Amino acid sequence: MKRYPCSGCSLLCDDIIVKSDGLFIDEVIGACLKGKERFDQVSAQNRITSPMIRKNDELINTSWEEALAKTVEIIKNSSAPLLYGFSNVTCEAQRAGMDLAREINGFIDSNASICQGKILNKAKAQGINLTTITEIINKVDLIILWGANPAETIPRLLNKVLFSRGKFRMTGREIKTLVIIDPVKTASFNVMGVRDLALIIEPDKDIELIQMLKEECCSADSIPSGGVAGVDKNDLKRLLLHLTGAENGVIILGQGVIQPHADYDLMEELLDLLQLINTRQVKGRISLLLLGGHFNMAGFDHVALSSYGVSGKLQFESKKLVKSEDTIISKINKENFDCSIIVGTDPISHLPHSLSSKLAKKPLILIDNHNSATSRIADIVLPTAITGIESSGLAYRIDQVPVELKKILNPPNNIPSDEELLNQLIEKLNGGAK
Amino acid sequence: MELYKFLPKTNCKECGKPTCMAFSLDLLQGKAKIDDCPPLLKPKYKKQYDKLKEMLGSEEGQQKELRINVDEDLCDGCGICVTICPVNARYCPPSLSGKAPEYPPEKHQLFQVIGGKCELLNLEHCRRLDSEGRERECRVCETYCPREAIKIEYV
Amino acid sequence: MDFLLNTMRKIDNDQVKEHSFGNKQSLEENLAISFINPKDFDKLNLVSSLHLKISNNQRNIIVKIEKDDNVPEGTITMPVSIWSNQLTEILNDELVYKNIVVSVEATREPILKFEEIIQKIRGIE
Questions:
Q1: Are residues A119 and A128 in contact, defined by beta-carbon separation less than 8 angstroms?
Q2: Containing domain of residue C111, as a range?
């Protein structure tokens, strides 16, 4: 039977079998719970299928003409709009969003900048190797999880990288070693075998472990006998042996290493350590893989780089790209904007109170397809088709490999896809300016 | 296993089975009785004999069936059981590299992930029933499930 | 008492799932919850009918409390949600989601409702 890619998380598995008659989805085979929930969004209880406008402090259904006209009015009355989100949409829609930002002299950024985007930029700047999932399946013999919990965030990752049998690792699980470093004993610890190493470090003490590893790299002689950061001496010796003896290793980083500190930068220290191990190794190398959330988190930087020559956030003035020192956080914190367009995300629930309260003070236009905390305070809500099921496009996986998403059903009420809606807004703004 | 600890562990084959481990499996499933092991009836193994009688109790000799339970509330559809089961690996080529096997399922396929949860298809080809020797002690699906949702038991 | 707060993602307590498929009640049941080590549970003289008041800087929240052996002593774990984000902070242009210093105490007050948080964010008390 035909296989479709799944847009549930950023692993973009492309081996899902979907039984459908063109009107409804009957069965989903091979997808994990997160993927099944994504396919269920088509008929979700709280799905929004018609545009809504806030009148007398309540959201009421309205027509597309009225909603789009009100949107254009809000944008025309603002001089510094903010565009945020863009990790739950295809690359074509991200490009349309950037064109819209240029049209209205706005500042556009994606969720990746507060998630894994920072580590990725620093890693690329330092020249650390990234790797793909197929390489891990076929060649890797050491996997380190640092601050990552794939059993709860990306369920099929451990299945694919640890348990599968690759071309050069045919015995699969028996030949691969797993090391997990985490302060909490999460569900990922349950896949450990006898050869594996579990290090439960004390909270907030990652930096001590990194500094010790940097000093003792390649020689296990003078490890402090009392251990470091709650890890005892024998485990530390084994960790050093694995790090320096692996033929082909991969270190997977999650949200756990994003811990800002006043005195040091944890991510830079970690990347320095990786660089050190790679230069001192006699054989083999260790590469990097970053876990992400929404399915197209990695795509925004690629599209920005290829369309506008800058990887990351974009600020436009007089319809031209300008340099800017601002980040999305500083823009919201200093209230340097006068309206916001949120696409495919829920910042009122994800951002700290000090930022979400400032975002709520200004007019907010939401482009999303289900209820959320942001839809409770938005002034206009514009629904779009669910990507990967009702509309197609390109998306980038966690290992920067592009995957083409396919269309299975038609959207209800003929609602447009994200790309079509953003292009409609650009047309209306252009038409009005004349 | 707990029963194996109290056997002579000499693999003398007087009970007709090749190893003491195989005999303990038969004891658990009710296919053999404690008295089928002649060395156990000797006085030097009296303590072990009594302990085994106490552990099995009235269930000794009662035919027991193998059951593999998948807890629907804990399962999150990760598919590790599909990839690691040796029977799946032999008969379903896509599962070797972590991909979902074909649908409709193969005759010998044991596990499949449907609707986001793992489902057990047919138990008759499980290694614990369908093979000889050390392969009958296969427990990989229970050991490696990250949410501890699979339980092997005899009822 | 001072504790460290850690916010993490859990597949059973998922905000997006509750918003799409559930209602306000299931949202509060699954997300206004925190996990603590059993030894700390006893130190704070908690029982299962009491709630936990977690506060830091000028804000506080009141949530359910559950025991969990895997949580290290001296820390509390919460799923990422609009409740836990009442306490997360900004430091030098970066967001802090882990190892936040908070103070906790047992309380009889009712759990903070979703509507109340929305009102707080909109600035209407």
A1: no
A2: 2-122
Q: Which residue is it, tokens 């996990």?
A: C35
Min Cα separation C59/chain A (Å): 9
- Find the range with the poorest average confidence among A336-340, B108-112, C90-94: C90-94
Fold of B66-154: Alpha-Beta Plaits (3.30.70)
Whole-prediction pTM: 0.88
Polymer length in residues for chain B: 155
Check A137 against B145: CB less than 8 A apart: no
User: ipTM score of the complex?
Assistant: 0.91
Do C86 and A353 count as a contact with CB atoms less than 8 A apart?
A: yes
Q: Do both A183 and A273 map to the same domain?
A: yes
> Which CATH fold topology does B4-59 show?
3-methyladenine DNA Glycosylase II; Chain A, domain 3 (1.10.15)
Please identify which residue in the block is written with the tokens 């997160």. Answer: A34
3-state SS assignment for residue C101: strand
Q: How many Cβ pairs closer than 8 A exist between chain A and C?
A: 135
A-B C-beta contacts closer than 8 Å? 105
Cα A85 to chain centroid distance, Å, stands at: 11
How many angstroms away from the CA of B77 is the closest CA of chain A?
A: 4
- Residue to substitute from A350, A358, A368, interface C, most C β-carbons within 10 A: A350
Please return the burial class of A364, using the count of CB atoms within 10 Å of its CB with bins 0-12, 13-18 and 19+: buried
CA atoms within 13 A on the CB side of A152: 20
Task: List, for residues A179-213, the tens digit of each pLDDT value.
Answer: 999 998 988 898 888 889 999 998 888 888 888 88
Cis before A411? omega within 30: no
Sign of CA dihedral B121, B122, B125, B127: positive
Last residue of a domain, one of A252, A274, A290: A290
- The last residue of one of the domains, among A290, A309, A329, is A290
**Distance of residue A135 Cα from the nearest chain B Cα, in angstroms:** 12
CB-based burial label for A180 (10 Å; 0-12, 13-18, 19+) = buried
Contact B113 A137 (CB under 8 A): no
